Amino acid sequence: MTVTLVTGANKGLGRETDRRLIKEGHTVYIGARSVERGQAAAAELGARFVQLDVTDDASVRAAVRVIEEREGRLDVLVNNAGIWDGIVGADGITSESASAIFDTNVVGVVRVTQAALPLLRKSDNPVVVNVSSSLGSFWAVTDPERTQSHNAFVVYGASKAAVSMLTVQYAKALPEIKINAVAPGFTATDFTAAVGGGRPVEESAEVIVRMATIGKAGPTGTFHEDDHELPW
């Protein structure tokens, strides 16, 4: 049985990823800040719940300790938790909001990955999937044919570019673990409700699930969108 931890996993893309990976036969741990919502999602999906706030070191350590005590290892880590300030353009950006976004979207990836490393190293096929965004691709945001080039998501885009670089550097530092980034695309969830629109979570979660289920010969240090590799 493949043991998987998904952060930010009680709703939206995380929840759909949980559902799909359970269907694939994974034992899925839903990591969520809210005990009530996390437990409800786990009960409905047939998953297991760990309280996990990616901005809190003690919370992350405690969640990983629970998985260690119950499973003894971790095979797949999906770093999905993320936030957005809803700001397009420069007006309204503050140092406080920027710090909060980077603490969740970037430092949160580091917190969880570092805490999970001992358990990942006990796996026969350790995999890490970092949920980034095409807004974190320098190629996509500078290509006039891509929608990402037409709006300035200043802080959020910068945070996802940092996730992309973390993916490359972690893949070099940890060759024994397959570490890849994915861009799920603009999706209709609570996360994007202020903007409106977006495609169904079932479609966007496909790339997350695909990269979470790669075999031992799978890639590392790559960036994927839908069924193809995305330029950095």
General description of the model:
This protein is an alpha/beta fold. The protein has a single domain (3-229), classed as NAD(P)-binding Rossmann-like Domain (Rossmann fold), CATH 3.40.50. It has 7 helices and 8 strands. It has an 8-stranded mixed β-sheet, with helices on both faces. Helix 2 (35-45) links the parallel strand 2 (27-32) and strand 3. Helix 1 crosses helix 7 and helix 3 (57-71) runs parallel beside helix 4. The longest helix is centred in the middle third of the chain and has 26 residues, at 95-120. The model has no long low-confidence stretch (mean pLDDT 92).
CATH H level, superfamily name: NAD(P)-binding Rossmann-like Domain
In the CATH hierarchy, the architecture is: 3-Layer(aba) Sandwich
Number of domains: 1
Strand content: 15-25%
Q: Globular, elongated, flat, extended or rod-shaped: what is the shape? A: globular
DSSP, total strands: 8
Order of helices and strands: EHEHEHEHEHHEHEE
Mean pLDDT: 92
Reading off the top of the CATH hierarchy, the class is best stated as: Alpha Beta
A few lines on this structure:
The protein is an alpha/beta fold and 232 residues long. The protein is 43% helix and 15% strand.
